[in-house]
Design a protein that fits this description.
CATH architecture: 2-Layer Sandwich
Shape: globular
Radius of gyration: 21 Å
Bound molecules: zinc ion
Low-confidence stretches: none
Strand content: 15-25%
Mean pLDDT: 95
Distance between the termini: 33 Å
Largest sheet: 10 strands, antiparallel
Order of helices and strands: EEEEEHHEEEHEEHHEEEHEEHEH
CATH superfamily: HIT-like
Length: 346
Amino acid sequence: MIEFKSEKMSSVMLDPRKNFEETGLNPEIRFDPLTRDTTRLGHFGMIKPQKIDLTKLDNEEVKKRCPFCPDNIEKMTPRYPADILPEGFLKKGEARLIPNIAPYDLFSALTVVSNKHLLTLEDMSFDVLKNAFEVGLDFYKIILDKKPEASYHFLGWNYMPPSGGGLVHAHQQVLSSKEPGNYYRKLLEESENYFKKHKTNFWDNLCEKEKEINERFVHEGKNLTWLTSFAPLGVLGEYIAVFNGKSTVKDIDNETLEEFVNDLLRLFNYFEDNDICSFNLGLYFAPSESEKNGFNIHARIIPRTFLNLTECPPDANVLQLLMKEPFSAFYPEDLCEKVKPYFKSR
Ligand SMILES: [Zn+2]
């Protein structure tokens, strides 16, 4: 039922690095086991994470203009009308949820993660992360109650400039929509198709299969299973956390959230040790009880980097944007070996 389909190619050239000897390189096409979308694996050894000097992004001049810094947030950020949020915003610890001043959607909220302008991976404590995710989950529950038509919930995070994050001050995108968008819709539809066809849950089957073959299986906890993605969406690979037996926003209890946060801290530890200082994170939920067939909440995390620090080219280019074809310069199996020890030391 779960198929890990791939095709290796032999791309022949006369290689100047080997005195123009005929050389065969082996890029690979992989098919995602759920969506069957293809990903290229190739360009090996040509890309590595670039460590940015983040301290340059943290000075008084920048903080004066940053709408999310404590001196500005009250006067520079919008509020929700009282029928949505009586106080205009939600707050938990240092995390504060506000409307995006330039919304993408019906409900396009932002969670300002903490008071710190420059929140490094090292600064991300259990409390900081838990409060941020909790305030987003609370917002989804409020919207479900007050505006149930906005039932598609997606939490996104562009962390640091290589990820496309426009502001350095850490903030998460908390979207509730009538329309899931292309990729999220595909995940929902294909999960449901799989459920109808096989009378079983794709995500359960995926985790079981990955555990059995043990090539991309990172860790299994009480509520979450971590994998490296067979057909990654990012140049530096992709990490997936599957929430076992959980589908909708309301299924996430305190224990599950705490496990997710603890696991994320492990992943961030691994990122720090490997010069990864930027990422995109997406957290997807089944929209409602009636539509949760076959869908598990899951998070996808993609490290991002500039290709070099001289011109700072982004790691997304014509392949991903105009061919809709992701590529990864790392084998998921190798990444799994590297990240696994960080999940064992608990
Ligand atoms: Zn700031």
